[in-house]
Design goal:
Ferritin-like_SF; 11 helices; Rubrerythrin family protein; single chain; transmembrane helix; 291 residues
């Protein structure tokens, strides 16, 4: 291991963390307790940065702002807890590096061990200070999204063989989505109440909201595109994008494999879609019905 290269990388990472924490602390969505924790963490990260810079000299990077922009987008798309959990997942590698560095440079062992302790404290304080409703009700949200994706992509795929215009297909899918979202919300409420969970009405609301949001997004191409095939392709692209978003969110929160989750749900959606396309085409030809 080249200690100078590792120190330079650590230097850049600490400055990035300082810059990111300062940015997050200024956001109005952040609670007072979390803002204080972020500001304290930013001070610690800047002190760590000065330590590593004292070893390697200047360590600025032209890609710093690009990296910050990436995490800012993640913050707005996924929320603070997913962002911090994602950063936390990278700290395991840093802990191994700290251990190797102290073995090669015993003279900085105490300082590096102090940095490692600071990093662990940041994680525990951050996660203890966060209270995001969408995280507490992630099961209800996932239920609504998953069910909507499977049912509605199936309906739209079946419409290729039963409908002649996009407006009819879009209305059929959206109305089915509205009815199903209400049904799913009621089912979610009953399930949460039977399980003795607090605020079952919120579980119902998040399930309903997730379902109706997916229903609206998947119906949108059919209302703005005249070609049934093109609208269907755009709908599938949106469905895959929603799957990618949902699986990344859950995978980060629960420390699961993102690619495996994404592949399983995507294959399920396409499998159901193909089956319903065959059924829709067969019924359309047998009954001679075209809407």
């Amino acid at each position: 291991m080249d200690v100078s290269k590792v120190a330079e990388e650590m230097c850049r990472d600490e400055y990035f963390s300082y810059y990111l924490y300062k940015f997050l602390a200024r956001k109005s969505l952040v609670s007072k307790s979390l803002r204080e924790a972020l500001e304290k963490a930013a001070e610690d990260e800047y002190r760590h940065y000065l330590f590593w810079r004292g070893i390697v000299g200047e360590c600025s990077s032209k890609l710093l702002m690009l990296k910050v922009l990436f995490y800012v987008v993640m913050f707005y798309l996924f929320g603070l807890i997913v962002l911090l959990k994602h950063l936390e997942s990278k700290e395991g590698d840093a802990a191994k590096i700290y251990k190797e560095v102290t073995g090669l440079r015993p003279d900085i062992k105490d300082v590096v061990e102090g940095i490692a302790i600071d990093e662990e404290r940041h994680e525990s304080v951050f996660l203890a200070s966060i209270d995001e409703s969408r995280v507490r009700y992630i099961g209800s949200i996932t239920l609504g999204i998953s069910d909507a994706l499977v049912e509605l992509t199936g309906i739209y795929t079946g419409s290729l063989g039963a409908f002649e215009n996009t407006l009819s297909a879009g209305l059929a899918g959206f109305l089915a989505g509205v009815a199903a979202s209400i049904s799913m919300g009621i089912a979610s409420y009953a399930q949460a109440k039977n399980e003795g969970r607090a605020r079952p009405e919120l579980a119902a609301f998040y399930t309903f909201l997730a379902y109706i949001a997916v229903a609206l997004l998947l119906a949108l191409p059919y209302f703005v595109i005249s070609s049934l095939l093109v609208a269907f392709i755009v709908m599938l692209i949106l469905a895959v994008a929603i799957v990618a978003y949902m699986t990344f969110y859950v995978a980060v929160l629960q420390s699961r494999s993102y690619l495996r989750e994404f592949a399983e749900i995507t294959l399920l959606i396409f499998g159901v879609s193909m089956l319903l396309y065959v059924i829709g085409s067969t019924l359309g030809n047998v009954l001679g019905v075209k809407i």
